[in-house]
Design goal:
alpha+beta, HisK_dim/P_dom, two-stranded antiparallel sheet, transferase, about 55% helix, two-component regulatory system, transmembrane helix, elongated, about 325 residues, Helix Hairpins, transmembrane
């Protein structure tokens, strides 16, 4: 017979055995054998049962006291500490194990927050420093209108970088907020992707990248049109950025297994096997990013938005042969 590990089981077992023992004692000691000193034996029996119950309850309260004492010492600075002095396999042990898992999740959340703040500061520091430098240089002496225009153009470019970064951060905060709820509007995904194909065609002209679109009609899902458009556009923008002149980007929207399948395939530089697991991480830029400007937030935002719509996004890539990003979303 396996030992009872559950505190609830132990208490129930103690309760039942106590009832049976007391009943049996009265039956045999009083009615059958009429034992002498039965009152003394009964008192000893009650003391024994009470002590057994006391030890069971004490074990419960000791475990809870240890856990409570440990919880009081935990702060944001020592989340790596764990409850290690509770090794029982009962409910108290399960509670300690769950608490340790909670500490692990909190530790990871704090690490991500600190990294996020550091990354944001880094992303804003460079354009702000460049902007300030340009303004200071422009003010050192009198300059011609053309020189002032050049400085203002550079300042505007830096300002656009800051604006883009802040917009990306706000989008990422929205998509990852626990309280964020996607609007349950009916979105005509065919129209959304058709518009993105037109935008991509214009973006491709500047780099001499050909854009092809294949969009099936009447594909609809529930969600936010604005957010989905942003998610898809981020993927397409990335494809065009990393595709050299003369290359191509193919955008398609089809139905497959009660899902909408959005696919973007390019003939760009490709993504290394080492980089592929990280491309959806915030501020991550691959080893082959080169001089291509970007904040490293685009695909993070896309993944968060797609996830908020109960969808999936995955990448397939070969160096020198291009990259394919595939998104699946549940149909309406």
């Amino acid at each position: 017979m396996k030992p009872i590990k559950s505190l609830r089981g132990k208490l129930f077992f103690w309760y039942i055995t106590s009832l049976i023992t007391v009943t049996a004692f009265f039956y045999f000691a009083v009615h059958i054998y009429t034992l002498p000193y039965r009152n003394i034996f009964f008192t000893i029996l009650l003391i024994f049962l009470a002590l057994e119950g006391f030890f069971i309850v004490r074990k419960m309260t000791d475990g809870l006291s240890k856990l409570s004492s440990k919880i009081k010492t935990i702060t944001s600075k020592n989340l790596n500490e764990k409850v290690t002095d509770i090794e029982s396999e009962d409910e108290i042990g399960e509670l300690a194990f769950s608490f340790n898992q909670l500490l692990d999740r909190l530790l990871q959340a704090f690490k991500r927050e600190r990294q996020f703040i550091g990354d944001v500061a880094h992303e804003l520091k460079t354009p702000l420093a460049t902007q300030r430098s340009n303004i200071e240089i422009a003010l050192t002496k009198e300059r011609s209108n053309e020189e002032y225009k050049k400085v203002l153009a550079e300042v505007l470019s830096d300002n656009n970088r800051i604006t883009t970064t802040l917009k990306n951060i706000l989008d990422l905060a929205w998509s990852e907020a626990e309280s964020a709820k996607v609007k349950k509007d009916i979105v005509n995904l065919s129209d959304v992707v058709s518009e993105i194909v037109e935008i991509a065609t214009k973006l491709g002209l500047a780099k001499k990248v050909r854009v092809f679109g294949k969009v099936d009609d009447r594909i609809a899902i529930l969600g936010s049109e604005d957010k989905l458009s942003r998610a898809f556009l981020n993927v397409v923008d990335n494809a065009i950025k990393y595709t050299p002149s003369g290359g191509s980007v193919r955008i398609s929207l089809t139905k497959k297994n009660e899902q909408a399948k959005f696919q973007v395939k390019d003939t760009g530089v490709g993504i290394t096997k080492a980089d592929q697991p990280h491309i959806f991480e915030r501020f991550y830029r691959g080893s082959r990013s080169g001089k291509v400007y970007g904040s490293g937030l685009g695909l993070s935002i896309s993944q968060a938005i797609i996830s908020a719509h109960k969808g999936t996004i995955e990448v397939k890539s070969d160096i020198g042969r291009g990259t394919t990003i595939i998104t699946h979303l549940p149909l309406h």
